[in-house]
Amino acid sequence: MNSTRKRNNMADEKESNEAQRSSFLEEKAFQSRTVLVFGTINDKLAAEVSKRLIALAAESKDPITMLVSSPGGHVESGDVIHDMVKFIDVPVNMVGTGWVGSAAVSVFLSVPKERRVCLPNTRFLIHQPSGGCGGQATDIAIQAREIVKVRERISALIARESGQSLERVTNDIDRDYWMSAEEAKEYGLISRTIVRQGELN
After folding, report:
1. Looking at the annotation, which residues are catalytic?
2. Which residues have a Cβ under 8 Å from the Cβ of 149 and sit 6 or more positions away?
3. pTM of the shown model
4. Apex CA 178: angle with CA 108 and CA 200, to 5°?
5. 7-21, 61-75, 171-185: range with lowest mean pLDDT
6. Three-state DSSP class for 141?
7. 83-110 core/surface letters (b: 16 or more CB in 10 A; e: else)
8. C-beta of residue 122 within 8 angstroms of C-beta of residue 97
9. SS3 181
10. Helix, strand, or coil here: 129?
11. Using CA atoms, how far apart are residues 66 and 31, in angstroms rounded to an integer?
12. What are 139-176's pLDDT values in tens digits?
């Protein structure tokens, strides 16, 4: 009985320490005006990032740094973050790291080119949206039309923000199109590659 109680106490203590450490890191991230967009982009992440952006914008008009390392995810959730970055009245520096793919590219392109940078080993992936169509024939047709609309919108965004022609972007995203940091710079997705935080300034 005593050993069970001891194990439970140890588990509670570990959980408490982890919660304190997490709270400490959250506070430090807030103080440094840094927002992380890591992992799959979904409605939960979009809501969390939006709350942080609004809170930081209310706290100060100093720039916010957004670190992005994501394979992408839900298109509309990416759109939420994209629009929220533009909505707040505070400049945002976008920093790519790891990889920036699919819907994460839409997030990344929410700021002017001069504020888009990446770390040396970042890779970028652009491609057309995908989705499973099911149900009645009329529903499948509606979903197919919506996918085409999203594809056109993504192509237009990438073309506008990169300076590439719409025709080229449309052709490039027909299949997975990978870019290194240097290739992303040549393509127009980023303005430059940085190594240290101080280079943001």
Report:
1. 102, 127
2. none
3. 0.83
4. 35
5. 7-21
6. helix
7. ebbeebebebbbbbbbbbbbbbbbbbbb
8. yes
9. helix
10. coil
11. 13
12. 667 777 888 899 999 999 999 999 999 999 999 999 99
